[in-house]
Automatic annotation (TrEMBL):
Keywords on record: Lipoprotein, Signal
Source species: Larkinella punicea
PROSITE patterns on file: PROKAR_LIPOPROTEIN
Entry protein name: SusD/RagB family nutrient-binding outer membrane lipoprotein
Signal peptide: 1-20
Pfam families: SusD-like_2
Amino acid sequence: MKLKSFFIFAFVALVGSACKESFLDINTNPNVLPTASPSFVFTNAVNTSATNILGPNEIGTYWAGQWTQGNGYILNTAQFAYIFTNGDFNYWDGYYDNLEDYQFVINTADANNQKYLKGPAKVMKAMLFQQLVDMYGSVPYTEALKGGEILAPKFDDQKVVYESLITLLDEAIVDLKANPFASAFTGSDLIFRGNVTKWVQFANSLKMRILIRQSKVAGKETYIKTEINKIVTEGSGFITGEEVGVGGTFFYLATAGKLNPIYDRWGYDANGAKRALNNYPRLTKFLIDGLKASGDTLRMKRIAYANGGENGSNPGVSTLKEVSANYSGTPFGVSSGYLPANTTSLGPSLIVKGDFNRPYILMTASEVQFLLAEAKQRFSDVTLPLTAKAYFEAGITQSFRVLGANVAGAEAFKGSKIENYDWDASTNKLTAIATQKWIALTNFSGLEAWTEYRRTNLPVIPQSVQVTDAKRPLRFFYPNTEAGSNSANVEAQGKIDVFATKLFWDVD
């Protein structure tokens, strides 16, 4: 967890230079490894973040009721019967390893005259720590990332970590505004290519995510409204009209190990051969039937391919005719009877043969609009300039856009009288926001979808057919690796029941 890859690189470089005369210079200490440049570390860290987030997004998409398992691959009881231990779902180690890299950038940027990387590194640090809390609850924060200085960091209360992340993002914004990117180093930024304004907008958007997550917690209303008004006063706004994404055509290559992580896992290899895992994720019956019932077929055809999957000779197009009758969802958790030929698979919004270099999405503009809609609906006196209805309708429009559907389809739902689609006709506005947000997160942000489901209990998704009671996972166990190396602090968190020990924002 201490920049292993860069130390290895440095060691190789050191050995490679051993035959040079300069290696024998008496002013060179051969026992001290050279320090990695913060810009190199930051680039690698962002790429690693995209890869690390893939796992939590996958399990989140299942437990949010959007995807399930296809019956053309190995079945998984940990995911769909909820039979798992502290040896499963260990995203902890990878996240903390990744956070060490961002902390290295924060600690060394000034000395290396790369101050412009401090703000982005703090934004990424805040995003990852929020996700850790949303998966595990209380986590090491104030004593974390200290290297050998503190080997057994204490756990900070999850509520305190959340508040600390708002402070961290405020610091990031100050750093960003004070330190524009040097033009020669914009290439080290795989997200915004050195655009400081967009980094500030991302920071503001993350702040909204953190604040709205706490919106049902007693006693937090004044704090949340104050922080939202501070964002408005800051003036940079939020991410809109585009996604926060890692890489793209300038970064991902048609080479093994250098593809977009989603494409590489569920799509195709570098030579265009379909991955075996393409047969595994399937869109749920609940999702597909709900989209059909609401007449939301434009988005359905972007979320999923028709039964039988993508036509390999006509990338981006289904093998069968793309009519509603040819889209069949799979019951959540079912273990037989639903093979690739008769079920819908991950659609062109996510995978198209040959599109190996799409950006890996970290946050969608649609999600941000639904955050703003909920903020305005819950706290009508915040200084956000638009109405909850306007933000809600913008969220649907942005969902159509990112999926690649004609945005005119979003306009058709205005005045349609369809519950949870037409704002004026929806009896419960918060239910409408949660429902549309759930749809919009499909294929892009599974961890966020599962987290929001735990917070809102919406939509009312079916239980896995492998489970005979109402229990659902509310969190993960602390991993056995942490229990082994930091046992006293893990034990201090008390007995964790993943079906009963709720996170602080899960109040219902």
